[in-house]
Structure formats: structure tokens, C-alpha cells
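input
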Amino acid sequence: MKEFALIFRHEDGGAVASPEQIQLWMQQTMDWLGGIAAQNKLVSRGNGLLFEDSRVVRPNNVVTNGPFGEIKETIGGYVIVRAESVEEAVEFAKGCPVLQGEGNSVEVRKIAGGGDFH
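output
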């Protein structure tokens, strides 16, 4: 069995959700994660990634505030799942409530194991 990171990407510029909508999305996310956990395939609930106190470090010691400016999307968080294949991990990703947001996506990446680096 392999481990995969499901990375939540949010497109900037969307409307701000109401507190009620945020609460609904949180409940949907907990239900989605619970379904994966019930199959014993949830490795880590990961973490949301906050925008406050964030910096981007570029070559030549250039440091800017947060992941803002010229980019159109940001990473909002991640979870780690266990799956037999990338196709199974993609099926988990398809159920993610993040996909309800216009322009949002879930990136599926295999986590490198001992012999995966060349």
C-alpha cells in the first residue's frame, strides 16, 4: 500500500463564504475524512495552512509576505491517505468538499518512500 498527499488548492479572487457556508463545508469535510478513516486508509488529517505569518523566500535572499501577489491560487491544506494505487487516491480526492469552490482543485501526489528518490 502506498501513501498519497491530497493537496487542496484554492483559486484566489472568489467570494468570501458566509460563516454558515464555512460551517457546512467543515462538516462535509469531517464526514468525507470519516469515510476514508472507516476504510482504515486515512494516515493523517494533515493541517490547514494559514495565510497570516507566511512568507515566500526566493533566490538572492528576497523575502515577501505570504503567498500573494502574482499567483492566482494558494494551497489551503492537505491530508495523507493510504491507497493501493494513484487511481484509488484520485477516487478519494473526487469526494473532497474543496471541489465545491469554483476553480478549486485537489492535487494527488505519491509520497516518496525509501527507494523512490533517484
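quick obs: The chain has a mean pLDDT of 85.
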